[in-house]
Design brief:
The protein is 52% helix and 13% strand. By secondary structure, the protein is of the alpha/beta class. The strands form 6 sheets. The chain has a 5-stranded mixed β-sheet with strand order 1-2-3-4-5. Strands 9-10-11-8-12 form a 5-stranded parallel β-sheet, sandwiched between helices.
């Protein structure tokens, strides 16, 4: 802009008169524009006039004026500009009548500003009246400071003073200042022609804020730290800024817009940094789980509703306007409090008390919410007689999109920082493409697009980084919609957490941060950790989701998380609903049985559903107690027939291998008795011995099949009995460490049957010579390692389908435990079992 203004300036004839005429023309047109805008209740240009006049009047009168509304941090009565060293004060106003002049003098006296300033000027930015009554003015001034009708000036007086001084350097400098303010790259100023080409010029300059490392931040919410790169909403910021300081505006502003329109970012990065010059800004988003009243009290630093009156008395002594902003009010409906009085009723009652207690024009309250809830909130404000104005934040249009695209190159500071240029015409292309789809959430999609384009050039070390049509069309082809964004981010997370992405765990976690209304939900970190198995890397996944802009830490607390953007919620919910990953399949099966879970008589799932639920365990939340019961019943049902077959097979083999052989010998002995009666006595003794062994074996077999007996002697006792049966034929070691914990019936039977089945498998298939059982107890879990030195096998290529192994795994997983087997041909086999224990006591002898 500076270069364009200088070019136009140099094109003027280098003579004093032409410069003076141009100054007069620009000031006259500006005054006319102010009059038109003020007539239409557009007062923000008055703020711009203050900033412009500082430069012009300083140059003209050799002053060092400052905008004291900004330097003092609050609105000053009677005056806007001041030079304390030269004791000169100026009020800038568009109101030219005598009433305004006398009111300014009265306020100047009331606030005793004559102690700081000897002279007062009133600059009328429209056009002053032809006559002001000097007697009334003199009476009001009361000889306390210098002010006469001649101290009421407008643009015509600037022209006259320049003509009187006849100082060419001042004329040139003031003309240059005006051209710089009112000329853009296309020629004549948009301001003077009624087109707000750069409406940020009508706002106070931002405070000194560090320019972020990147010009675009994807779906990360804009905050005050990103105010320097928040583009595209200048007009809306200006209109809200004007409403806050408009003396005739209602004290409550209802700010609403559709999901994804950028309302919160507009407040946090656009409006609030500028409001802080003149007001005390308190900004809070509704506290999930605590409600609007608690949010309001925290914003005021007030401990309770009963202390508000005392707080208000303190506020009145402060003298600075209070701007209270409460965002996400709609959560009173989408995430209502579980207990307590009606949240909206209590909030609006408190808010009305606050509004009515403070003097007029010392408080503005902005309530932000989604447009679906506007009718309800508007009606509630009417019901409570809260004086409110509404402001609907429209979706960003083409001009706003182009401003965002060109933002990094729009100012000298950002241009130097980013060295970024946009190929000519690309801003139009992007704007047209985005607005072509009326259902697309333009702002988040635009931020994703521009972040990706920036990522493609940020590593270039040349003087200029250019975003080209080719780069845009390539990205458009590969996809930059929200669904594409989600795909890409999940792939990036999978580079470090492949198992967690493939199981559906990451998608399950993201789904937890959505609501049934397809909006973002907020959860405390501990709530998230408690929702999942402690063995899963949930903390690391949370960090990764924040890193890749899927989640964000909330402004209120770094321990609270929510989706990076509301518009991700419907995309995540859609993906979750159609996902065939194990975690989502398990979730759907259990959700379909939700009604059944409330019944006392639970019917088991099908074998297929049962297998899917168990397979998806590591891709979803912890099972509820009822779900665990359903899975246990289903597991028992799934294993029932095979267990029966195994039981019969086991009994048959035991009878065949032990009792059958003994009976055969008994038969033979009886035959010998018939043939050799003389040896009857000896044979009868041997028969008695055989019968005794048969009886013992039958008793042992009976006990191993009897759950009551197993429970009575305990898991360790039952396992030791099984080992004793084969210790004469195999080298079997049983080691136990830690204090043995008391196990319930299910845990005892499950662990024994799994160890018994493992032992039988080793005896049948492994050809092992050595077998070891290592059992470790602690207060939280029991772990078992079963190792043999047999021939081993390929775990992933079982010819028999491995159903016996699956049954053992099901038994353990039903109790929320872990069951793993590691083996390979020629290297033996190790079975590892871990079962969680909670609130147990030591086993007594």
């Amino acid at each position: 802009m500076k270069d364009a203004a200088l070019t136009i300036f140099l094109n003027y004839p280098m003579n004093q008169q032409s410069h003076l005429l141009r100054i007069s023309e620009l000031l006259s047109r500006f005054s006319a524009q102010v009059s038109i805008l003020n007539a239409n209740s557009e007062y923000s240009i008055n703020i711009h006039a203050e900033n412009l006049l500082i430069k012009v009047l300083n140059e003209l009168f050799d002053l060092d004026l400052k905008n004291i509304n900004y330097t003092s941090g609050k609105m000053q009565p009677a005056i806007d500009l001041g030079d304390p060293l030269r004791r000169t004060a100026i009020q800038v106003t568009a109101t030219a009548d005598m009433k305004k002049v006398l009111g300014t003098i009265a306020m100047f006296n009331e606030k005793k500003l004559f102690h700081q300033y000897d002279r007062l000027f009133i600059y009328i930015i429209t056009q002053k009246q032809p006559f002001y009554n000097p007697k009334k003015i003199k009476t009001k001034v009361d000889c306390k400071f210098i002010f006469t009708p001649e101290h009421i000036i407008d643009h015509s007086d600037v022209y006259k003073e320049l003509n009187r001084q006849n100082d060419l350097s001042k004329i040139n400098q003031i003309l240059y200042l005006l051209e710089q303010q009112f000329t853009d790259r296309t020629g004549e100023s948009g301001l003077l022609n009624g087109d707000y080409h750069d409406s940020y010029h009508l706002l106070p300059e931002l405070p000194h804020i560090m320019i972020p490392a990147a010009p675009y931040i994807s779906l990360k919410p804009y905050t005050e730290k990103e105010a320097a790169i928040f583009w595209g909403r200048g007009r809306q910021i200006r209109e809200l800024y004007e409403a806050v300081f408009d003396q005739d505006c209602n004290p409550v502003i209802l700010l609403y817009g559709q999901t994804g329109v950028g309302k919160s970012s507009l407040l946090d990065a656009g409006l609030i940094p500028r409001l802080k010059f003149k007001s005390d800004v308190r900004y809070k988003r509704r506290y999930t789980g605590e409600g609007l009243v608690k949010t309001l009290l925290d914003a005021l630093n007030c401990p309770s509703v009963e202390n508000i009156k005392e707080y208000l008395m303190t506020r009145q002594r402060n003298g600075k306007k209070l701007v209270l902003i409460i965002d996400q009010v709609e959560e009173a409906w989408t995430k209502p409090l579980e207990h307590g009085p009606d949240e909206i009723d209590q909030f609006l009652t408190t808010l009305k008390h606050l509004v009515m207690a403070l003097p007029k024009r010392t408080l503005t309250v902005i309530l932000g919410y989604r447009k679906e809830y506007h009718a309800e909130i508007d009606q509630q404000c009417i019901r409570y007689n809260l004086p409110a104005m509404t402001y609907f934040l429209q979706p960003i249009g083409k001009n706003g999109i182009k401003e965002i695209v060109n933002g990094p190159s729009s100012k000298t500071t950002t241009k130097k920082q980013y060295r970024l240029e946009i190929e000519a015409g690309l801003d139009d292309q992007i704007a047209n493409d985005l607005v072509a789809d009326p259902d697309s959430p333009v702002m988040p999609v635009l931020q994703i697009l521009m972040t990706n384009l920036w990522d493609g050039v940020k590593h270039i070390h040349a003087e200029k980084r250019t975003i080209s049509f080719a780069a845009y069309f390539h990205l458009k082809k590969t996809g930059y919609a929200l669904s594409d964004f989600l795909n890409t981010r999940l792939q990036e997370i999978a580079q470090n957490y492949k198992e967690e992405v493939d199981s559906g765990l990451v998608l399950d976690l993201l789904f937890f941060f959505t609501t049934s209304l397809s909006t973002s939900d907020t959860h405390n970190k501990q709530t998230v950790l408690d929702r999942y198995d402690k063995e899963l890397p949930i903390q690391q996944i949370l960090t990764a989701c924040v890193q890749f802009y899927l989640l964000t830490e909330t402004k209120e607390s770094s321990n609270n998380y929510s989706l990076a953007h509301d518009t991700l919620a419907p995309v995540i919910r859609s993906r979750f609903g159609s996902s065939e990953l194990p975690g989502q399949k398990a979730h759907r099966i259990l959700e379909n049985r939700r009604a059944d879970l409330m019944k006392d008589d639970l019917h088991p799932m099908s074998d297929k559903d049962f297998a899917s639920v168990v397979n998806g365990r590591k891709g979803m939340r912890i099972w509820t107690n009822q779900e665990t019961l359903l899975i246990e019943i289903s597991g028992q049902h799934a294993m029932k027939f095979e267990l029966q077959e195994n039981l019969l097979s086991h009994i048959g083999m035991e009878i065949h291998d032990n009792i059958g052989q003994l009976l055969s010998v008994l038969k033979l002995q009886l035959e010998i008795i018939d043939e050799r009666s003389d040896e009857l006595a000896k044979n009868l003794h041997e028969i008695k011995q055989l019968v005794r062994v048969i009886v013992q074996d039958v008793a042992q077999l009976s006990r191993s099949l009897n759950p009551t007996y197993i429970q009575r002697i305990g898991f360790i006792g039952a396992l030791q009995a099984e080992i004793n049966k084969i210790k004469n034929y195999f080298n079997v070691q049983l080691e136990m460490s830690g204090d043995e914990q008391e196990l319930n019936e299910k845990e005892t039977l499950t662990l024994f049957r799994v160890c018994q089945e493992s032992l039988n498998n080793i005896l049948k298939h492994s050809k092992a010579k050595h077998i070891s059982f290592k059992i470790t107890f602690n207060a939280k879990e029991v772990s078992i390692s079963i190792k043999d030195d047999g021939i081993g096998f390929d775990v992933g290529n079982r010819t028999d389908g491995g159903q016996g192994l699956k049954n053992m795994e099901y038994r353990i997983m039903v109790l929320q435990g872990e069951y793993t087997i590691t083996s390979q041909p020629g290297s033996g086999c190790t079975t590892y079992i871990k079962l969680p224990l909670q609130n147990r006591t030591l086993k007594t002898s």
